[in-house]
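Something for you to look into today, if you have time. Could you write out one complete protein record for me, on any chain you like? Leave the record below and I will have a look.
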Amino acid sequence: MNEPLLTVSGLTVRYGGVVALDDVSLRVPKGAIVGLIGPNGAGKTTMVDALTGFARYTGEVRFAGTRLDGLPAHRRAARGLARTFQSAGIFDDLTVEENILIGERSAARRFSTLRAIFGGRTEKPRAQTRRIIDLLDLGGSLEVPAGELSEGHRKLVSVAQALAGGPQLVLFDEPAAGLDSTESAWLGRQLRAVSESGVTILLVDHDMELVTSVCDELVVLDFGKVIAAGPPRQVLDDPGVVAAYLGSVTTAGDA
């Protein structure tokens, strides 16, 4: 496995007297897809929030060899760390192309362009963004308002939006939530194509077929602690994982 792009050591998040993450350590190798799984309330979304600068924590986060601790969300994004949100995070009144351009221009901090998009004046995607559009097969729906898309295509637009900023690592927060098995399998193929294009992925999801089909490694959280990590088959055969997660979760829910 490649050298780590992201290394987390002793990460702890507290909300008042509640410990949401307790001394968590993990690594995401460059070029890999690492799945972060666990039962509802295990701390998965809190982990994504902490890594991307949306939650305060103690501990150490190193990305591409540099400590990110203390940096706000926008500066982490500028260094190549992107994320999606459970709610897709796209604008229904804007077209697919306009939503993708928001990701492209936000990463470049071109807020004048964002104002132009919301004001009805758009620029064309850069060549790199055009390649992402082609990779995810979104070229035929660029002029369609996002609100008219299926849930699966909305999630794919959010993926394209995150990738348009040219990140090194994307943290996907439950991209398969609300999808049926066919849509989830299709999304998995797109995520694998994203990985093969050179983007490293940390994937949070409850869909076990998705994570086992696309992930190189799995990390399991339970009550804010890592209880297992390693290749998918090894992790899913772990009795502790079966007891904590697989026996109790069958559908997507709160992370």
Summary: The first strand starts at residue 4 and ends at 15.
